[in-house]
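Worked example 3 (structure in, sequence out).
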Protein backbone atom coordinates (compact mmCIF):
# COMPACT_ATOMS: atom_id res chain seq x y z
CA UNK A 1 0.00 0.00 0.00
CA UNK A 2 1.26 3.46 -0.86
CA UNK A 3 2.00 5.87 1.96
CA UNK A 4 -0.56 8.66 2.17
CA UNK A 5 0.09 12.11 3.59
CA UNK A 6 -2.47 14.70 4.64
CA UNK A 7 -2.39 18.30 3.49
CA UNK A 8 -4.37 21.26 4.67
CA UNK A 9 -5.02 22.82 1.25
CA UNK A 10 -4.89 21.90 -2.40
CA UNK A 11 -2.07 24.04 -3.73
CA UNK A 12 -2.92 23.49 -7.39
CA UNK A 13 -6.33 25.07 -7.07
CA UNK A 14 -5.30 28.62 -6.19
CA UNK A 15 -7.83 31.09 -4.82
CA UNK A 16 -10.31 31.44 -7.65
CA UNK A 17 -13.72 32.51 -6.36
CA UNK A 18 -16.73 30.94 -8.00
CA UNK A 19 -20.48 31.14 -7.67
CA UNK A 20 -22.12 28.08 -6.19
CA UNK A 21 -24.24 26.37 -8.83
CA UNK A 22 -26.99 23.95 -8.00
CA UNK A 23 -28.94 23.87 -4.77
CA UNK A 24 -27.78 26.26 -2.02
CA UNK A 25 -27.73 23.42 0.52
CA UNK A 26 -25.12 21.49 -1.47
CA UNK A 27 -21.75 21.71 0.31
CA UNK A 28 -19.75 20.79 -2.80
CA UNK A 29 -18.00 23.61 -4.62
CA UNK A 30 -18.32 23.71 -8.40
CA UNK A 31 -20.32 20.43 -8.26
CA UNK A 32 -20.63 19.89 -12.02
CA UNK A 33 -17.22 21.34 -12.98
CA UNK A 34 -18.73 24.33 -14.77
CA UNK A 35 -16.23 26.92 -13.49
CA UNK A 36 -12.97 26.49 -15.39
CA UNK A 37 -9.61 28.16 -14.84
CA UNK A 38 -8.14 27.95 -18.32
CA UNK A 39 -8.80 26.12 -21.56
CA UNK A 40 -8.72 22.34 -21.86
CA UNK A 41 -6.15 21.04 -24.34
CA UNK A 42 -5.39 17.51 -23.17
CA UNK A 43 -6.39 14.84 -20.66
CA UNK A 44 -5.25 14.78 -17.00
CA UNK A 45 -6.37 18.38 -16.46
CA UNK A 46 -8.88 18.10 -13.62
CA UNK A 47 -7.10 21.02 -11.94
CA UNK A 48 -8.58 23.27 -14.64
CA UNK A 49 -11.91 22.88 -12.83
CA UNK A 50 -12.06 25.44 -10.03
CA UNK A 51 -11.82 23.88 -6.54
CA UNK A 52 -10.99 20.40 -7.87
CA UNK A 53 -7.77 18.39 -8.11
CA UNK A 54 -6.50 14.82 -7.74
CA UNK A 55 -4.67 13.59 -4.63
CA UNK A 56 -2.16 11.42 -6.52
CA UNK A 57 0.50 12.26 -9.09
CA UNK A 58 -1.76 10.87 -11.83
CA UNK A 59 -4.51 13.41 -12.40
CA UNK A 60 -8.12 12.71 -13.27
CA UNK A 61 -9.55 13.89 -16.59
CA UNK A 62 -11.89 16.74 -17.43
CA UNK A 63 -14.12 16.84 -20.51
CA UNK A 64 -16.06 19.74 -22.00
CA UNK A 65 -18.49 20.48 -24.79
CA UNK A 66 -16.52 23.70 -25.33
CA UNK A 67 -13.58 21.58 -26.53
CA UNK A 68 -14.14 19.98 -29.91
CA UNK A 69 -13.16 16.37 -30.54
CA UNK A 70 -10.50 14.19 -29.00
CA UNK A 71 -8.99 13.78 -26.50
CA UNK A 72 -10.98 15.79 -23.94
CA UNK A 73 -14.07 16.95 -25.79
CA UNK A 74 -17.70 16.08 -25.15
CA UNK A 75 -19.72 14.21 -26.09
CA UNK A 76 -16.94 12.42 -28.05
CA UNK A 77 -13.53 11.91 -26.40
CA UNK A 78 -10.73 9.36 -25.96
CA UNK A 79 -12.83 7.03 -23.82
CA UNK A 80 -16.18 7.05 -25.59
CA UNK A 81 -19.20 9.24 -26.09
CA UNK A 82 -21.24 10.93 -23.36
CA UNK A 83 -23.05 14.24 -23.01
CA UNK A 84 -22.80 16.01 -19.63
CA UNK A 85 -25.45 15.17 -17.06
CA UNK A 86 -25.49 18.84 -16.08
CA UNK A 87 -24.01 21.88 -17.79
CA UNK A 88 -21.11 21.62 -20.24
CA UNK A 89 -18.43 19.63 -18.40
CA UNK A 90 -17.77 16.39 -16.53
CA UNK A 91 -14.81 14.52 -15.04
CA UNK A 92 -13.41 11.03 -15.65
CA UNK A 93 -11.57 8.58 -13.39
CA UNK A 94 -10.05 5.09 -13.51
CA UNK A 95 -11.83 2.92 -10.94
CA UNK A 96 -10.11 -0.39 -11.69
CA UNK A 97 -7.59 -2.01 -14.01
CA UNK A 98 -6.96 -5.68 -14.58
CA UNK A 99 -3.97 -6.87 -12.50
CA UNK A 100 -3.38 -3.23 -11.50
CA UNK A 101 -1.81 -2.50 -14.88
CA UNK A 102 -2.94 1.13 -14.76
CA UNK A 103 -3.08 3.28 -11.60
CA UNK A 104 -6.45 4.52 -10.43
CA UNK A 105 -7.34 8.19 -10.40
CA UNK A 106 -9.39 10.24 -7.94
CA UNK A 107 -11.27 13.51 -7.54
CA UNK A 108 -10.75 15.74 -4.51
CA UNK A 109 -12.22 19.03 -3.30
CA UNK A 110 -12.65 21.09 -0.16
CA UNK A 111 -16.23 21.51 1.06
CA UNK A 112 -17.88 24.89 1.45
CA UNK A 113 -18.15 24.29 5.20
CA UNK A 114 -17.02 21.54 7.61
CA UNK A 115 -19.46 18.76 8.43
CA UNK A 116 -21.24 18.85 11.79
CA UNK A 117 -20.76 16.08 14.33
CA UNK A 118 -23.45 13.37 14.45
CA UNK A 119 -25.35 14.94 11.53
CA UNK A 120 -26.31 12.58 8.69
CA UNK A 121 -25.59 13.78 5.17
CA UNK A 122 -26.82 12.58 1.80
CA UNK A 123 -24.10 11.84 -0.75
CA UNK A 124 -24.95 11.81 -4.46
CA UNK A 125 -23.05 11.86 -7.71
CA UNK A 126 -23.70 10.58 -11.21
CA UNK A 127 -21.59 8.06 -13.10
CA UNK A 128 -21.55 6.72 -16.64
CA UNK A 129 -19.29 3.87 -17.73
CA UNK A 130 -17.24 4.88 -20.78
CA UNK A 131 -17.99 3.03 -24.01
CA UNK A 132 -14.46 1.66 -24.44
CA UNK A 133 -14.13 0.24 -20.92
CA UNK A 134 -13.55 -3.50 -20.77
CA UNK A 135 -14.62 -3.71 -17.13
CA UNK A 136 -17.39 -2.46 -14.84
CA UNK A 137 -17.01 -2.36 -11.04
CA UNK A 138 -18.58 -1.51 -7.69
CA UNK A 139 -17.00 0.32 -4.70
CA UNK A 140 -17.84 3.86 -5.76
CA UNK A 141 -16.88 5.75 -2.63
CA UNK A 142 -16.71 9.26 -1.26
CA UNK A 143 -14.08 9.54 1.47
CA UNK A 144 -14.50 12.31 4.06
CA UNK A 145 -11.47 13.74 5.87
CA UNK A 146 -10.47 16.79 7.88
CA UNK A 147 -7.49 17.33 5.58
CA UNK A 148 -6.94 16.50 1.93
CA UNK A 149 -5.21 13.29 0.89
CA UNK A 150 -2.02 13.38 -1.14
CA UNK A 151 0.12 10.70 -2.75
CA UNK A 152 3.29 12.03 -4.33
CA UNK A 153 3.44 9.28 -6.96
CA UNK A 154 1.05 7.43 -9.23
CA UNK A 155 -0.84 4.72 -7.37
CA UNK A 156 -4.00 3.49 -5.69
CA UNK A 157 -5.29 4.91 -2.42
CA UNK A 158 -6.33 1.87 -0.38
CA UNK A 159 -8.18 2.42 2.90
CA UNK A 160 -7.80 -0.92 4.71
CA UNK A 161 -8.30 -0.01 8.37
CA UNK A 162 -11.87 -0.62 9.51
CA UNK A 163 -11.99 2.59 11.53
CA UNK A 164 -10.92 4.67 8.52
CA UNK A 165 -13.43 2.87 6.30
CA UNK A 166 -16.17 4.40 8.41
CA UNK A 167 -15.31 7.64 6.61
CA UNK A 168 -16.25 6.17 3.20
CA UNK A 169 -19.80 6.67 1.92
CA UNK A 170 -20.79 3.94 -0.55
CA UNK A 171 -23.93 3.37 -2.58
CA UNK A 172 -26.40 1.57 -0.32
CA UNK A 173 -26.24 -1.76 -2.18
CA UNK A 174 -22.71 -1.18 -3.56
CA UNK A 175 -23.63 -2.72 -6.90
CA UNK A 176 -21.58 -2.95 -10.09
CA UNK A 177 -22.31 -0.02 -12.42
CA UNK A 178 -22.27 -1.48 -15.93
CA UNK A 179 -24.46 1.06 -17.73
CA UNK A 180 -22.73 2.54 -20.77
CA UNK A 181 -25.82 4.33 -22.09
CA UNK A 182 -26.87 6.68 -19.32
CA UNK A 183 -25.99 8.66 -16.21
CA UNK A 184 -26.79 6.63 -13.09
CA UNK A 185 -26.79 8.08 -9.56
CA UNK A 186 -24.59 6.81 -6.76
CA UNK A 187 -26.45 7.51 -3.52
CA UNK A 188 -25.42 6.95 0.07
CA UNK A 189 -25.44 8.46 3.53
CA UNK A 190 -22.69 9.57 5.89
CA UNK A 191 -22.90 10.45 9.59
CA UNK A 192 -20.15 12.92 10.36
CA UNK A 193 -17.66 12.64 13.19
CA UNK A 194 -17.26 16.41 12.92
CA UNK A 195 -15.08 18.95 11.08
CA UNK A 196 -14.60 16.92 7.89
CA UNK A 197 -13.48 19.47 5.29
CA UNK A 198 -12.55 17.40 2.22
CA UNK A 199 -14.15 14.83 -0.06
CA UNK A 200 -12.26 12.37 -2.26
CA UNK A 201 -14.09 10.27 -4.87
CA UNK A 202 -12.88 6.94 -6.24
CA UNK A 203 -12.25 3.29 -5.35
CA UNK A 204 -10.54 2.85 -1.97
CA UNK A 205 -10.62 -0.97 -1.89
CA UNK A 206 -8.07 -3.41 -3.28
CA UNK A 207 -8.84 -5.48 -6.36
CA UNK A 208 -9.66 -8.59 -4.33
CA UNK A 209 -12.45 -6.65 -2.60
CA UNK A 210 -13.71 -5.08 -5.81
CA UNK A 211 -16.39 -6.85 -7.83
CA UNK A 212 -15.95 -6.57 -11.57
CA UNK A 213 -17.66 -7.61 -14.77
CA UNK A 214 -15.88 -8.12 -18.07
CA UNK A 215 -17.76 -6.48 -20.93
CA UNK A 216 -17.87 -7.09 -24.65
CA UNK A 217 -17.04 -4.21 -26.94
CA UNK A 218 -20.07 -2.28 -28.12
CA UNK A 219 -21.01 -3.04 -31.70
CA UNK A 220 -20.57 -0.24 -34.22
CA UNK A 221 -18.41 1.78 -31.83
CA UNK A 222 -14.98 2.71 -33.14
CA UNK A 223 -11.87 2.37 -30.99
CA UNK A 224 -10.04 -0.28 -29.00
CA UNK A 225 -11.28 -1.38 -25.60
CA UNK A 226 -9.14 -0.26 -22.66
CA UNK A 227 -8.34 -2.79 -19.88
CA UNK A 228 -9.86 -0.59 -17.19
CA UNK A 229 -13.14 0.45 -15.65
CA UNK A 230 -13.23 4.10 -16.64
CA UNK A 231 -16.16 6.23 -15.50
CA UNK A 232 -17.41 9.70 -16.25
CA UNK A 233 -18.48 11.66 -13.13
CA UNK A 234 -20.87 14.63 -12.88
CA UNK A 235 -23.13 16.59 -10.49
CA UNK A 236 -21.67 15.87 -7.04
CA UNK A 237 -23.75 16.65 -3.96
CA UNK A 238 -23.34 16.53 -0.17
CA UNK A 239 -26.19 17.94 1.90
CA UNK A 240 -27.90 17.45 5.26
CA UNK A 241 -30.46 14.66 4.94
CA UNK A 242 -33.67 16.10 6.34
CA UNK A 243 -35.88 13.53 4.60
CA UNK A 244 -34.71 9.96 3.79
CA UNK A 245 -36.60 10.17 0.49
CA UNK A 246 -34.12 12.82 -0.66
CA UNK A 247 -31.39 10.19 -0.66
CA UNK A 248 -33.30 7.18 -2.00
CA UNK A 249 -32.51 7.57 -5.69
CA UNK A 250 -30.27 4.50 -5.72
CA UNK A 251 -33.23 2.18 -5.16
CA UNK A 252 -35.20 3.76 -7.99
CA UNK A 253 -32.30 3.71 -10.42
CA UNK A 254 -31.07 0.16 -9.86
CA UNK A 255 -33.65 -0.84 -12.43
CA UNK A 256 -34.35 2.00 -14.81
CA UNK A 257 -37.49 0.23 -16.02
CA UNK A 258 -39.12 0.12 -12.59
CA UNK A 259 -42.82 0.93 -12.77
CA UNK A 260 -43.39 4.51 -11.60
CA UNK A 261 -46.28 6.64 -12.86
CA UNK A 262 -47.06 10.02 -11.31
CA UNK A 263 -50.44 9.95 -9.55
CA UNK A 264 -52.14 13.24 -10.36
CA UNK A 265 -55.31 14.95 -9.21
CA UNK A 266 -58.21 14.41 -11.59
CA UNK A 267 -60.59 16.95 -13.01
CA UNK A 268 -64.35 17.10 -12.99
CA UNK A 269 -66.82 18.03 -15.69
CA UNK A 270 -68.46 20.48 -13.31
CA UNK A 271 -66.92 23.74 -12.14
CA UNK A 272 -63.98 23.84 -14.55
CA UNK A 273 -63.62 25.94 -17.68
CA UNK A 274 -62.20 24.32 -20.79
CA UNK A 275 -58.90 26.13 -20.13
CA UNK A 276 -58.73 24.57 -16.66
CA UNK A 277 -59.64 21.14 -17.99
CA UNK A 278 -56.80 21.39 -20.51
CA UNK A 279 -54.32 22.09 -17.70
CA UNK A 280 -55.65 19.25 -15.55
CA UNK A 281 -55.67 16.73 -18.39
CA UNK A 282 -51.88 16.17 -18.34
CA UNK A 283 -51.09 12.50 -18.98
CA UNK A 284 -48.19 10.78 -17.17
CA UNK A 285 -46.30 7.67 -18.27
CA UNK A 286 -44.28 4.80 -16.88
CA UNK A 287 -40.50 4.59 -17.38
CA UNK A 288 -39.66 4.06 -21.07
CA UNK A 289 -43.33 3.38 -21.83
CA UNK A 290 -45.96 4.99 -24.05
CA UNK A 291 -48.89 2.93 -22.78
CA UNK A 292 -51.91 4.95 -21.66
CA UNK A 293 -52.56 4.06 -18.01
CA UNK A 294 -56.20 3.42 -16.97
CA UNK A 295 -56.20 6.21 -14.37
CA UNK A 296 -55.28 8.74 -17.06
CA UNK A 297 -58.26 8.27 -19.39
CA UNK A 298 -60.90 9.95 -17.21
CA UNK A 299 -59.56 13.45 -17.77
CA UNK A 300 -59.07 12.69 -21.46
CA UNK A 301 -62.75 11.76 -21.70
CA UNK A 302 -63.70 15.08 -20.11
CA UNK A 303 -61.32 16.95 -22.41
CA UNK A 304 -62.72 15.20 -25.47
CA UNK A 305 -66.26 16.15 -24.43
CA UNK A 306 -65.28 19.79 -23.97
CA UNK A 307 -63.55 19.88 -27.35
CA UNK A 308 -66.67 18.51 -29.05
CA UNK A 309 -68.79 21.08 -27.25
CA UNK A 310 -66.46 23.91 -28.30
CA UNK A 311 -65.69 23.36 -32.01
CA UNK A 312 -64.02 26.76 -32.29
CA UNK A 313 -60.99 25.46 -30.35
CA UNK A 314 -58.04 23.41 -31.51
CA UNK A 315 -55.64 21.42 -29.35
CA UNK A 316 -51.86 21.13 -29.38
CA UNK A 317 -50.25 18.11 -27.72
CA UNK A 318 -46.82 18.61 -26.11
CA UNK A 319 -44.94 15.36 -25.40
CA UNK A 320 -41.94 15.04 -23.05
CA UNK A 321 -39.30 12.60 -21.80
CA UNK A 322 -37.65 12.57 -18.39
CA UNK A 323 -33.94 13.36 -18.04
CA UNK A 324 -32.86 9.71 -18.02
CA UNK A 325 -34.82 8.89 -21.17
CA UNK A 326 -33.41 11.99 -22.85
CA UNK A 327 -29.87 10.99 -21.89
CA UNK A 328 -30.38 7.59 -23.52
CA UNK A 329 -31.38 9.25 -26.79
CA UNK A 330 -28.39 11.58 -26.69
CA UNK A 331 -26.13 8.62 -26.06
CA UNK A 332 -27.68 6.50 -28.81
CA UNK A 333 -30.04 8.36 -31.18
CA UNK A 334 -31.10 4.99 -32.58
CA UNK A 335 -32.02 3.43 -29.23
CA UNK A 336 -34.94 1.16 -30.16
CA UNK A 337 -37.01 2.03 -27.08
CA UNK A 338 -36.41 5.73 -26.51
CA UNK A 339 -35.65 7.26 -29.93
CA UNK A 340 -39.36 7.83 -30.75
CA UNK A 341 -40.74 7.62 -27.22
CA UNK A 342 -42.07 11.19 -27.11
CA UNK A 343 -43.62 10.71 -30.56
CA UNK A 344 -45.30 7.49 -29.46
CA UNK A 345 -46.64 9.08 -26.26
CA UNK A 346 -48.18 11.90 -28.27
CA UNK A 347 -49.65 9.42 -30.76
CA UNK A 348 -51.36 7.26 -28.15
CA UNK A 349 -53.00 10.33 -26.62
CA UNK A 350 -54.00 11.75 -30.00
CA UNK A 351 -55.46 8.42 -31.11
CA UNK A 352 -57.50 8.19 -27.91
CA UNK A 353 -58.97 11.67 -28.38
CA UNK A 354 -59.83 10.86 -32.00
CA UNK A 355 -61.52 7.65 -30.83
CA UNK A 356 -63.69 9.82 -28.56
CA UNK A 357 -64.88 11.98 -31.44
CA UNK A 358 -62.36 14.83 -31.67
CA UNK A 359 -61.50 15.55 -35.32
CA UNK A 360 -57.88 14.79 -36.23
CA UNK A 361 -57.62 18.13 -38.06
CA UNK A 362 -58.09 19.92 -34.72
CA UNK A 363 -55.13 18.21 -33.03
CA UNK A 364 -51.50 19.23 -33.56
CA UNK A 365 -48.45 17.58 -32.00
CA UNK A 366 -45.12 18.97 -30.77
CA UNK A 367 -42.40 16.80 -29.21
CA UNK A 368 -39.67 18.11 -26.89
CA UNK A 369 -37.49 15.16 -25.77
CA UNK A 370 -36.30 16.22 -22.26
CA UNK A 371 -35.73 19.89 -23.04
CA UNK A 372 -38.68 21.20 -20.98
CA UNK A 373 -38.57 19.67 -17.51
CA UNK A 374 -41.05 20.72 -14.83
CA UNK A 375 -39.24 19.01 -11.94
CA UNK A 376 -35.49 19.49 -11.70
CA UNK A 377 -34.56 17.13 -8.86
CA UNK A 378 -33.23 13.59 -9.13
CA UNK A 379 -35.84 11.66 -7.17
CA UNK A 380 -38.19 9.06 -8.62
CA UNK A 381 -41.06 11.52 -8.19
CA UNK A 382 -39.22 14.25 -10.10
CA UNK A 383 -38.61 11.93 -13.05
CA UNK A 384 -42.22 10.72 -12.97
CA UNK A 385 -43.53 14.30 -13.20
CA UNK A 386 -41.45 14.87 -16.35
CA UNK A 387 -42.69 11.82 -18.30
CA UNK A 388 -45.79 13.54 -19.58
CA UNK A 389 -48.06 14.79 -22.33
CA UNK A 390 -49.49 18.28 -21.83
CA UNK A 391 -52.09 20.21 -23.79
CA UNK A 392 -52.33 23.73 -25.16
CA UNK A 393 -55.65 25.25 -26.20
CA UNK A 394 -55.48 27.05 -29.55
CA UNK A 395 -58.28 29.43 -30.47
Amino acid sequence: MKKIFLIGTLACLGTLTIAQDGDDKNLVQNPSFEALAGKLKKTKQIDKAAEWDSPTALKADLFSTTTEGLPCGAPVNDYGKESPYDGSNYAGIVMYSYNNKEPRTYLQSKLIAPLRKDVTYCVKFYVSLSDLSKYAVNNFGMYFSKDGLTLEEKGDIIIDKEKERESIALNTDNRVYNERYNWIPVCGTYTASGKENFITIGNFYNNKETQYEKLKKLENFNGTQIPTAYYYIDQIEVFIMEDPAECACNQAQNDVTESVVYNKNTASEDGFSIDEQVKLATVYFDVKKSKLEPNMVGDLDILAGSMKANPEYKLKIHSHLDADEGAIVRKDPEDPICKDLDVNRAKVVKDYLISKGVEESRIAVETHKDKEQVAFGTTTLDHAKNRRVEFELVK
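Notes: The chain has two domains: 5-252, 274-394. The first strand starts at residue 5 and ends at 7.
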